[in-house]
Amino acid sequence: MLSEFTSLMEIEREKLRKEEIEGEFQQRIDKWLKPAFTAFILSRPPNEVNPNILDVALMDEWRTLLCTEPLNEDLTESTVEAASAKIPQFAETFRKGRIEELLDVVRRSKTYSSQRVTEDVLQLASTMFRCADSRCGRNGEMNTYPHILAHTCNFLFMQEPNIEIAPRDAEHLPPPELPSTGVDPGKNATIRLYREEERHILTALKYVGIWAGLDADIAFDDAAHEHTLSLLDALGWSHDTTGAEMEERQPYVECLCECYHDLEKARSRKVSRWKKAMKSHASKYEGSVSLDGAQAKGCKFCRKVAAGQPIEEKDIDEDNEVDQWSSESDSE
Asked: pLDDT tens across 176-235, in order?
């Protein structure tokens, strides 16, 4: 009976010690990492692609600093400054990696197949992406760059991470063992830690998502691309108009295309901002055009894009089936 009680006391003591250590890690992160990260973010241009605080915490310099210095001793300003000085270089590598992943998605689209695609393409208003994962809470929502990189499906959240701990010099790592139930392996990226103490970083930042790779269900939206080009034509604006320019000028538009209306009901007028018009198109178009173009719903743009057929000049005037926009810009 006494040994049983002693065992319970040991378990409780270990639990309290773990909570104490986690609290000390949280204080260290709040005092040193968060101000350094905030200063870095404030130094960056608006809408830049940046790592988040958990990505930075798992940089070699920061994870070493946070986890190897004794917890009963404070960090020195010189060591913190040295780790902070590495953040911009890490962020640039991070940015280039995320952009390259997104460019690969654009290159696989029907619109840009076999074309040379550079980062400039991502800036265009006609470059639209959509997540097709039916389990996603924002399924079907269209996004432009860089907002698509902040989409929830691209991140792994730390409440239940799949962790692999191995020394930095380990040459042959066993394959990670993914949970067998209730988890989609494609959403369960493995976090590699070099030491057991680094678990406390994940606990301290458990509500922050870490980049897990561009989700496989995110795709370039060819139909939305064509609709946006037709909208730009109606506005008399260049096809090279960027998403930032559209956001700045914010034209009001009305689409008369059949994709936006229930053909069985009397047509009503609905004017909206340009991006909302594209999203309205997405909700009407969702599921109405099969990938092989066999179904005949949606406008001619939608049907042809779904079938992988080129948009021809005759399509634009034939049967009034494609986009017809009326517009009024705030700037005019």
From this structure: 433 333 334 445 556 778 888 888 898 888 888 778 788 888 999 888 888 888 888 878
Among residues 176, 175, 206, the alpha carbon closest in space to that of 188 is found at: 176
Q: How far apart are the C-alpha atoms of 196 and 187, rounded to whole Å?
A: 23
Locus of tokens 């005759």: 314
Among the listed residues 229, 226, 220, the one whose alpha carbon sits nearest the alpha carbon of residue 108: 220
Q: What CA–CA distance (Å, rounded) separates 89 from 114?
A: 32
The overall pTM is greater than 0.85: no
